[in-house]
UniProtKB/TrEMBL annotation:
The lineage of its organism: Eukaryota, Viridiplantae, Chlorophyta, Mamiellophyceae, Mamiellales. This is Uncharacterized protein. Residues 40-56 have a biased composition (Gly residues). It comes from Mantoniella antarctica. Transmembrane segments: none annotated. One of its GO terms (biological process) is meristem growth. Residues 34-58 are annotated as: Disordered.
Length: 99
């Protein structure tokens, strides 16, 4: 989708909104395709993840000085909040016994 240099309205930046999910500077951005999954999406749980259950969706990853890795759905970046990517999955500190 190449735009000509003189395209109407395409020669200046426009402020459309603000998000500040990182507490400090963002040091890296990357685009990737989410791996196909069985409806879990990034973040787990039946379809509530970053891609809403549609494998192969484009995602934007951001990393910053705050040591957080965040994933955003590229198609709905302005509408959805990021999902924090956990490098080492944590177990829930809760256990139940039969009784």
């Amino acid at each position: 989708n190449a735009l000509g240099d003189g395209a109407a309205g395409m020669n200046r930046w426009a402020f459309t909104g603000a998000k500040r999910p990182h507490t400090h500077d963002v040091r890296a951005l990357a685009m990737a395709r989410a791996p196909p999954s069985e409806g879990s999406g990034v973040g787990g749980g039946g379809g509530g993840g970053i891609q809403g259950g549609h494998g192969g969706s484009a995602i934007l990853l951001s990393g910053g000085n705050d040591a957080q890795l965040l994933a955003y759905p590229a198609a709905s970046f302005r509408k959805r909040h990021p999902v924090r990517v956990v490098s080492v999955p944590q177990r829930t500190p809760l256990a139940m016994t039969g009784g």
